[in-house]
């Protein structure tokens, strides 16, 4: 059903518009004024660092994100284990052979 704006319901429309603007201001204001996103990014990038699958840092990041969802009020937060076929970082060696032999 489509309702047109008439002089009879224009006050109702204006009140609704004002309420929506207030809600929008509150939501957008929270996004601009809170540092939650930036704090999360800094923790994951600076404190946890690289998060290759299967590493302790990946596990730490997963636990942090899991806890954050609970802190935001989500109740059905789950993790699922799965098999990951990838590589593991090993030791690296480089030797220069010419013009003079040396390990780098």
What's the β-strand tally? 2
Strand order within the widest beta sheet: 1-2
Query: What class, by secondary structure content?
Result: mainly alpha
Measured distance between first and last alpha carbons: 76 Å
Amount of beta strand? under 5%
Which descriptor suits the 3D outline?
elongated
User: Roughly how many Å is the radius of gyration?
Assistant: 27 Å
The arrangement of helices and strands along the chain is HHHEE
Question: Average pLDDT, to the nearest integer?
Answer: 84
Quickly count the helices: 3
State the share of residues found in helices, binned by percent.
Answer: 40-55%
Largest sheet geometry: 2 strands, antiparallel
List unreliable stretches of 5+ residues: none
What would you call the quaternary organization?
A: single chain
Describe the structure.
This protein is mainly alpha-helical. The chain has a domain at 10-73. The chain has three helices and two strands. The chain has a two-stranded antiparallel sheet with strand order 1-2. The longest helix is centred in the N-terminal third of the chain and has 24 residues, at 10-33. The N and C termini lie far apart (76 Å). The model has no long low-confidence stretch (mean pLDDT 84).
What structural keywords apply?
104 residues, 2 strands
How are the SSEs ordered, and which strands pair?
Elements: H1 10-33, H2 36-48, H3 56-71, E1 95-96, E2 102-103
Antiparallel strand pairs: 1-2
Overview in brief:
With 104 residues, the chain is mainly alpha-helical. Helix content is 51%, strand content 4%.
């Amino acid at each position: 059903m489509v309702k047109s704006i008439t002089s009879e319901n224009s006050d109702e429309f204006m009140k609704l518009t004002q309420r929506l603007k207030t809600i929008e201001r509150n939501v957008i204001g929270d996004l601009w004024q809170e540092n939650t996103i930036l704090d999360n990014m800094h923790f994951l990038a600076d404190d946890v660092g690289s998060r290759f699958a299967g590493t302790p840092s990946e596990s730490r990041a997963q636990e942090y994100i899991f806890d954050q969802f609970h802190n935001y009020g989500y109740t059905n937060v789950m993790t699922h284990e799965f098999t990951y076929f990838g590589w593991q970082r090993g030791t690296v060696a480089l030797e220069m052979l010419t013009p003079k032999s040396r390990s780098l």
